[in-house]
């Protein structure tokens, strides 16, 4: 029969490199650690550790066994966590970072409802226009929009959205025909660009005929900004044309503050991703929130 405590002691000895260090980590005496390692080796019939006067290290067999023990201990902790959560709900803290705009409109309302379902869970939401580092910021989840760059983190696509070319009527009235009727006119417009995009003035556009065309602005951007809310404010003020998410501009379009340009053309759809650290054991609170958010957005899209 497997003694999980002995496995935990063995892992601690390998990681500490000594019986004394493992004893300090586990809050046990050195004699208890030594006894349990001896019993484990006798039970398995193999030598797991090499002892020297300065350091304890794993044998080849011990090294392989160490990695198996890590997996077993993590699986056991996961099982215990699931049982605890089934009984008492999620607990601890959940740190999430998002952009300000999407956070206010979508993530914060979702977090508010999630908190009601799990009252023992402490939620920390951080708004940022920058892609904050998950590890340095101690974030459990980051919600990223757009096209996801290569990352060492896990990522799950939870939704997609359209982006639209928009401008205010007061800007369009300054143009010769008071409108923009084709891609060449759009390329010639005054542009308001997002400074954090790698190619803020080039877009692969699908025409009404289904042809994919690269559209690039002829002139440099008249104005750049590092947040979608700033771009929206500039567009509403008549500063030029901007490409913005439908969820951000739909209300302004309906109220007449903005006009959707070339509505029969399709700009590339953007993804909404949940990023979380690349660890073997994903906390239940992380899985639960991502599943909750995905289900919530799926239901919203059906309405």
UniProtKB/TrEMBL annotation:
Gene Ontology MF term list: DNA-binding transcription factor activity; sequence-specific DNA binding
Keyword presence, DNA-binding: yes
Biological-process GO terms, alphabetical: DNA-templated transcription
Family matches, as Gene3D superfamilies: 3.40.190.290, Winged helix-like DNA-binding domain superfamily/Winged helix DNA-binding domain
Keyword tags: DNA-binding, Transcription, Transcription regulation
UniProt xrefs under CDD domains: PBP2_CrgA_like
InterPro entries: LysR-type_TF_proteobact-type, LysR_HTH_N, LysR_subst-bd, WH-like_DNA-bd_sf, WH_DNA-bd_sf
Matching Pfam families: HTH_1, LysR_substrate
Domain HTH lysR-type as annotated: residue spans: 2-59
Keyword Transit peptide: no
Family (UniProt): Belongs to the LysR transcriptional regulatory family.
Protein known as: Transcriptional regulator, LysR family
Organism: Candidatus Pantoea varia
Phylogenetic classification of the source organism: Bacteria, Pseudomonadati, Pseudomonadota, Gammaproteobacteria, Enterobacterales
């Amino acid at each position: 029969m497997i003694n999980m405590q002995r496995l935990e002691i063995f892992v601690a000895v390998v990681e500490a490199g000594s019986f004394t260090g493992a004893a300090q980590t586990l809050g046990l005496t050195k004699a208890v650690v030594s006894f349990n390692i001896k019993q484990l080796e006798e039970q398995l019939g193999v030598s797991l550790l090499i002892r020297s006067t300065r350091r304890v290290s794993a044998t080849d067999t011990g090294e392989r066994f160490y990695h198996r023990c890590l997996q077993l201990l993590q699986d056991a902790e996961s099982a215990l966590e699931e049982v605890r959560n089934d009984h008492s709900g999620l607990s601890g803290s959940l740190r999430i970072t998002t952009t300000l705009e999407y956070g206010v409109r979508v993530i914060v309302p979702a977090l508010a409802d999630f908190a009601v379902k799990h009252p023992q869970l402490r939620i920390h939401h951080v708004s940022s226009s920058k892609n904050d580092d998950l590890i340095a910021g101690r974030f459990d989840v980051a919600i990223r929009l757009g096209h996801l760059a290569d990352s060492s983190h896990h990522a799950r696509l939870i939704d997609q959205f359209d982006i639209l070319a928009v401008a205010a009527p007061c800007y369009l009235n300054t143009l010769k025909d008071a409108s923009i009727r084709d891609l060449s006119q759009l390329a010639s417009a005054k542009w308001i660009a997002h400074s954090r995009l790698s190619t803020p003035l080039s877009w692969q556009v699908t025409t009404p005929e289904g042809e994919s065309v690269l559209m690039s602005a002829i002139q440099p951007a008249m104005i750049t900004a590092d947040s979608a809310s700033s771009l929206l404010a500039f567009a509403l003020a008549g500063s030029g044309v901007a490409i913005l998410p439908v969820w951000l501009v739909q209300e302004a379009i309906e109220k007449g503050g903005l006009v959707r340009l070339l509505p029969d053309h399709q700009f590339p759809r953007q993804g909404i991703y949940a990023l979380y650290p690349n660890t073997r054991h994903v906390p239940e609170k992380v899985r639960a929130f991502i599943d909750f958010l995905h289900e919530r957005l799926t239901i919203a899209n059906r309405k």
